[in-house]
Structures are given as C-alpha cells and as structure tokens.
C-alpha cells in the first residue's frame, strides 16, 4: 500500500511541505545513514527498455544480461534513490461496467454472500464477541458467532478488503518514488473477461495479498501449483477460531469444546459434500496429500500387498506418489510398474492395459500432472484397474481447485488432496476412502482420539475416520478448509473451470510466439500449468528475472524428476494459473519473456 506525498504546490496546499525532489534527496540521505547501507559504487544497472505491450496491458520488464547476470544465490544490487526503477501500473484496475448478470448461487453452507455480523442482542442465536477484523465499524459493536451445528460463513465474494497502512519498516523500499513515477505511465487497457458469469476483478478483491508490491511492482502470483493465496474469508475464519472457539475437540463438556468440535466436524461434512462423497465418515483429515498417500501405503498396503504383487504408477507422478510405493515395495517384496507417456505428456493407455495383471493390487495416478498440467483420463484408468481386481488411488492435489470432482461417479477407492492448493491454509489435507475399504484398514498411528478402549493387555480402536486421526489434529486449519471450499462453491467451479480454460488457451498461444521458448507438456486436455524452457537461460535465471518484474513462478524439477527426465530435462520454468489471474498478467509475463529472448538472440 502506498501513500501519496503532498507538496506545497496548488491552492490550499501546505507551503511548508518539501517538494518531490527534496523528499527524494532526504530519503536517500536517511537510507544511506542506516547500518549496512552505502552508496552504490560503479555505473548503475542498465534498465530494460519498455517491451512491446500486449493487447491488454502496457508491460514493462527489466533487462537481464545473461552473460553478467548475478547467480540466483547472490543478492541483487539496489539502485540509488535518485534513479528510480520504471514501474508498471497496478494490475488491479477499477472494475469496468459489465453486463448485469445474476450473482453466483450459494453453495452448501453459504446462507448469503455477506452475512450480517452485527445483530440486536435480542435476536442473537450464538455466542457473542467483538472484533473489528470482521468488518465492524467500531470496537464496541457485537457480532454473532455461529451456534452449535451452524456453519461459519465469512465475507462474501467481492467484499472490500482494506489493507493496513505500511510503516517505513515494512513498506517496499522506495515505494513513494514508485507511486510518483507510476503517475506518468499509461494506464493499462481494461478487458472484459470472456466468461460474463465469472467476474475475476470481484474475486481478486477477496485476496488481500494480490495488492502486495514486490520489487516495486504489483505482485503477479503465477505459482499456484505450489500453493494458492487465501481469500479474506479464510483468513477471518482462522482468526475467529482462535479468538472465540479455540479448544481441543470431542473430549470435553464445556462450551468452547463444543464450538471447536462443531467447526471440525462441520468442515468434514463440507469436504464430503464438495467432493460428492457418500458420507462425512469417508473423509479423513491429514496434514496434506503426502501424508494421506503414506497413510494408505502403510495402513492398507502393509495388509494387502505382498511379495510378487504389483503396484502401478505413471510417469507423471509427484515424488509423493512414488516414494511411498517404493518403500512399500521394499518392505513387502512387491514390484513397481510405470505407465509411460507420449511426447505430449499423455498416458499411453494401451501400454497401461498391458501392465495390469492378476497380481496388480493398486494403481496410483494423478488427476492432473503437477509438472505438465496434463489431465489424466482417470475414469478409464479406474475402470481398467477394477476389471483387473485392483484398488485405485487418485492424487487430486492439482485438480480440486480447477475442475469439479464427484467421487461417487468417479468410483476411486482413495482420493487425496492438500488444503493449501485449494485456497485453504497449509498443514491440512484430506484422504477419502470408500467405507468398506477404510473399515478394512488397521490404524497407521496410535495415540489419543483414535481409541475406543485401552488396557495394558489390548486396545480397541474407533471406527473410521477417527481411527486414522491419532492425536490433536489441525482443528483451525480444518475449519478454514471448510470455509475455502464453501467459497469455491459460492464462486462456482464450473465457471472457474471455463474461465481458466480460456485463460490457459490464451497464455499457451502467446507463449508459443516467444522465440526460443519450448513448452513441455502439450496434451490437448490440460489444466492451469504452463511448463517451459527458454533457450539461452537456465530455469532459475528466468524465474529470477521474472521476480524482478514482480512475477512469481516456480523453477526446478517440481518434485517430479522422472517426469522431467522423460523429456531430457532436469527442470523447467512453471507458471501456473488460478481463478484470480488475468489476461493482463499473462501479457506482463509474455512481455518479459520476449525481452529475455531478444537479449539471448543478441548474444548469439
């Protein structure tokens, strides 16, 4: 957040205030006097000239000289204050007039887009509290917490978020100079999104971090396959829990325990409804998809996989869907088989059918590849495995935020995902299992909460899902996961999927026009991910240059080294999209990549 600097110019202005040049000089002297600060020696770093703007955004990218670029591990040199960097205008432009469309329908557990937090005391149905973080206009106003069995609903879509004022200690360096220079730049073109039922600007207003500035520029978050940002409703849900509900669950008779238990179990029911699961008892809370896969490998695999049996995975796997099965194979004497992929990154289904046998016990594949974005035809994979008598685990970590999931229609035996990939906090994830499969599995870990009765001679365990949730879980994070899924339901996953499909198609076409850029993973059926290499640069060099523009992408092997090596690579650059990304952000990305490609061409 930036604050305009008043001057003594103009009618009614305070004549004693310094002008802009004086402000810049004083600030430079102040910064130079700080410990560790010193004037920059040598010639100033060269700036990249303005790149050709895309159709939706006046794009600016800094120059990267590949021959002299600093290694990733070294800090970049900060230019002196007297030569401020060229900045891009904020991407978050005021909403434009659009055709009036009906608001999205509320999903399960959403009573209305913006609940009334302040109510007369006589109408209160839940415990009272106070707090300005929930949109109250004064500290003394009261709001109502949900009563027992009621779902918490946070701010509705599009509710305004006001960021706190930044202090000099926390503001981006030279933020006031950025604001002054930004006033001279042309305003970005405004484009109405192609999905009139989905308003991306309305969604963006719910994510406070998207107003952040990085390296003096508006944050462009294109690292969504690694983790997603959080809407204000999720942030508020965590705050509400710790302010008004914090307690351990199940084993107490006091009010806070009841509130916490309702929040935790209510979130379980929300997850079941969101996934189309038959009941909440099929939902096990874990720390994430990785822990969920390990739980299946150790609790189900150690009982049902033996010497000579076979486990089938694919060439598209995240390490979390490889290593646990390798460990199980080493422990049991089983064999691990791998489904190959073609040069576009698609599973070779005929080869998959040939791998199945009467010894196949489990097939584990992703619904969406985290490295390439390929959407796997999981229905065909599941049907073929079931004909062979095998169980199937689907890794849905890269799917649940992008495409609708119906587990009863899918018929997977296990399904896993991580909350932080779906706009929820880190440290919470889900294992779904068919009821009969979960009941056949012994516990993985022992401790409190998962027992029915304990003596020194024997222990009797609770039914699923409790038997797989030993100890104190991530209660607040589970509650916030429920809020995140309610938020997605309110926005509408079908509309999100259509919008992202159009955005991915646009980004794919634009990136293909960049000289020397090669997309890795070109399957016709993809979601959210654009993996590429750029001639003349290492992936980390490209990511570092983009970061200087405020654009966050991932570079490396993406925890999918076998996938990378299938294409003869050790790593790629991976921009990944989410529902809050825009055409203008894609234009900024492509403009920066074109400038890098031009620089590489001049060196050759």
Summarize the model shown:
31% of the residues lie in helices and 12% in strands.
Set down the secondary structure blueprint.
Blueprint: H1 20-33, E1 128-130, E2 142-144, H2 175-182, H3 200-204, E3 213-214, E4 217-218, E5 220-221, H4 232-244, H5 255-275, E6 283-286, H6 289-304, E7 310-314, H7 323-332, E8 335-339, H8 349-355, E9 360-366, H9 378-387, E10 391-395, H10 407-410, E11 414-418, E12 429-433, H11 435-439, E13 451-454, E14 459-461, H12 475-491, H13 493-512, E15 517-520, E16 531-534, H14 539-548, E17 551-552, E18 554-556, H15 561-566, E19 572-574, H16 583-603
Parallel strand pairs: 5-17, 7-8, 7-9, 9-10, 10-11
Antiparallel strand pairs: 1-2, 3-4, 6-12, 11-12, 13-14, 15-16, 18-19
Helix pairs in contact: 4-12, 5-12, 6-7, 13-16
General description of the model:
It is a single chain. The strands form seven sheets. A seven-stranded mixed sheet has the order 6-12-11-10-9-7-8, sandwiched between helices. A two-stranded antiparallel ribbon has the order 1-2. Strands 3-4 form a two-stranded antiparallel sheet. The chain has helices at 20-33, 175-182, 200-204, 232-244, 255-275, 289-304, 323-332, 349-355, 378-387, 407-410, 435-439, 475-491, 493-512, 539-548, 561-566, 583-603; strands spanning 128-130, 142-144, 213-214, 217-218, 220-221, 283-286, 310-314, 335-339, 360-366, 391-395, 414-418, 429-433, 451-454, 459-461, 517-520, 531-534, 551-552, 554-556, 572-574. The protein is globular. By secondary structure, it is α/β, with parallel strands linked by helices. It has 16 helices and 19 strands. Helix 4 (232-244) runs antiparallel to helix 12 and helix 6 (289-304) packs parallel to helix 7 (323-332).
């Amino acid at each position: 957040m930036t604050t305009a600097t008043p001057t003594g110019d103009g009618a009614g202005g305070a004549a004693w205030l310094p002008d802009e040049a004086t402000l810049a000089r004083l600030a430079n002297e102040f910064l130079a006097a700080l410990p560790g600060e010193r004037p920059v020696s040598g010639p100033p770093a060269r700036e990249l000239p303005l790149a050709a703007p895309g159709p939706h955004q006046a794009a600016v990218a800094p120059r990267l000289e590949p021959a002299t670029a600093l290694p990733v591990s070294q800090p970049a040199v900060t230019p002196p204050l007297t030569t401020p960097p060229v900045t891009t205008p904020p991407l978050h432009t005021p909403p434009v007039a659009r055709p009036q469309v009906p608001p999205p329908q509320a999903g399960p557990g959403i009573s209305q887009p913006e609940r009334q937090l302040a109510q007369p005391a006589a109408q209160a149905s839940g415990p009272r509290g106070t707090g300005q973080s929930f949109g109250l206009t004064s500290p003394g106003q009261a709001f109502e917490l949900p009563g027992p069995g009621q779902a918490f609903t946070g701010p509705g879509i599009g509710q305004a978020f006001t960021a706190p004022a930044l202090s000099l200690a926390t503001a981006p360096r030279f933020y006031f100079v950025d604001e002054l220079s930004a006033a001279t730049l042309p305003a970005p073109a405004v484009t109405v999104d192609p999905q009139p039922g989905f308003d991306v600007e309305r969604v963006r207003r719910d994510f406070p971090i998207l107003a952040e500035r990085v390296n003096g520029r508006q944050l462009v978050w294109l690292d969504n396959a690694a983790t997603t940002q959080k809407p204000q409703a999720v942030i508020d849900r965590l705050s509400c829990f710790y302010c008004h509900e914090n307690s351990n669950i199940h084993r107490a008779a006091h009010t806070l325990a009841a509130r916490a238990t309702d929040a935790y179990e209510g979130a379980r029911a929300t997850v079941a409804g969101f996934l189309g699961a038959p009941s909440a008892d099929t939902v096990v809370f874990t720390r994430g998809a990785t822990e969920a896969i390990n739980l299946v490998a150790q609790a189900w695999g150690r009982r049902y996989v033996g010497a000579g049996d076979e486990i089938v995975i694919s060439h598209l796997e995240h390490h979390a869907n490889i290593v646990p099965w390798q460990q199980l194979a080493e422990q049991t004497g089983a064999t691990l088989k791998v489904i190959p992929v073609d040069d576009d990154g698609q599973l070779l289904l005929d080869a998959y059918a040939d791998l199945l046998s009467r010894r196949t016990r489990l097939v584990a594949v992703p619904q969406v590849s985290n490295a390439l974005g390929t959407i796997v035809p999981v229905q065909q994979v599941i049907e073929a495995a079931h004909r062979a008598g095998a169980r199937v685990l689907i890794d849905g970590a890269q799917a649940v935020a992008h495409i609708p999931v119906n587990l009863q229609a899918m018929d997977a035996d296990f399904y896993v995902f991580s909350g932080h990939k779906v706009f929820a906090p880190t440290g919470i994830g889900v294992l779904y299992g068919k009821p009969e499969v979960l009941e056949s599995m012994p516990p993985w870990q022992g401790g409190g909460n998962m027992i029915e009765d304990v003596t020194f001679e024997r222990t009797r365990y609770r039914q699923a899902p409790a038997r797989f949730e030993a100890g104190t879980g991530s209660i607040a994070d589970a509650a916030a996961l429920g809020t995140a899924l309610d938020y997605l339901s309110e926005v509408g996953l079908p509309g999100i999927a259509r919008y992202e499909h159009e955005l991915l198609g646009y980004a794919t076409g634009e990136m293909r026009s960049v000289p020397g850029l090669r997309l890795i993973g070109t399957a016709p059926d993809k979601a959210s991910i654009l993996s590429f290499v750029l001639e003349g640069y290492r992936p980390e060099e490209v990511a570092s240059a983009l970061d200087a523009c405020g654009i966050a992408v991932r570079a490396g092997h993406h925890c999918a080294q076998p996938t990378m090596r299938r294409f003869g690579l050790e790593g790629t650059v991976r921009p990944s999209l989410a529902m809050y990304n825009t055409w203008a952000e894609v234009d900024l990305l492509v403009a920066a990549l074109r400038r890098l490609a031009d620089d590489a061409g001049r060196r050759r």
